[in-house]
Design a protein that fits this description.
alpha/beta, 5-stranded antiparallel sheet, 7 helices, 15 strands
Length: about 240
């Protein structure tokens, strides 16, 4: 598991890394920490390595932690972020960027470990994800957040349930293997894969998602889709 730590104060950076390794060792979890002292380097590295978690100081010179988080969210990155700060005044702002948690400095090991345990349980083990290549690097896509996928030449458009789209540089055939029927997806058309759990209604020619998007069903796939949908919903 790749975890980024970003803090402009080296003493806090060292202490956070030490506690992080202690938590991982106690739980038998294999981690690779990445250290950063500014938000720009963190953003660039995340695009390349696709972090599983970011522990981010808020008060930093130039690009502060909150603006760094906004940049990450602007690129539709759903990576969990744990904020660190010595001031409570940013607590409300942390909700704006959908922070996983907000911790006060200096860090207390028990408090940090509880938050990391929650992260591990709710994010890493329960939600399957896919690291997809984009024009700017890699991004992690959680399967259950995907509304549908659409093949577009040599790219695939991934539409998420929060009304955002991500264009990935992956073969549609590879996406078929990952977004399979066993995981609740169905290829309803040669260019579309839909999340069965996000289907609102359907006819013989199209599917309407819960977000109000209409997706075509090919004539040859309707009977198989209907059977797959009811089998999945009532299994």
């Amino acid at each position: 598991m790749k975890i980024a730590i970003c803090d402009d104060e080296l003493s806090y950076l060292d202490e956070t890394e030490r506690l992080l390794k202690q938590w991982a060792d106690q739980r038998g979890i294999d981690i690779t920490p990445y250290r950063f002292t500014n938000g720009d380097d963190l953003i660039q590295a995340h695009q390349t390595y696709c972090m599983d978690l970011i522990i981010l100081d808020i008060i930093m010179p130039l690009l502060n932690g909150m603006d760094t988080a906004r940049e990450l969210r602007h690129d539709h990155q759903s990576v969990p972020i744990i904020f660190l700060t010595s001031s409570r005044e940013y607590a409300v702002d942390s909700y704006e960027v959908k922070a996983f948690h907000y911790l006060m400095k200096p860090l207390e090991s028990d408090h940090l470990f509880r938050v990391l345990d929650d992260f591990w349980e709710t994010t890493h083990t329960a939600r399957e994800s896919f690291a997809a290549q984009t024009d700017t690097g890699f991004c992690r896509i959680t399967l259950e957040d995907v509304d549908y996928l659409e093949a577009q030449n040599k790219r695939v458009l991934v539409s998420l349930s929060n009304d955002t789209d991500i264009e990935i540089r992956e073969l549609f055939s590879k996406c078929e293997e990952i977004f399979s029927l066993e995981k609740g997806f169905f290829k309803c058309h040669r260019s579309y894969i839909v999340n069965l759990n996000h289907v609102e209604q359907f006819t013989k020619t199209q599917i309407s998602t819960k977000n109000g998007i209409n997706i075509p069903i090919s004539r040859n796939n309707y009977a198989a889709f209907k059977e797959a949908y009811f089998s999945y919903m009532f299994r």
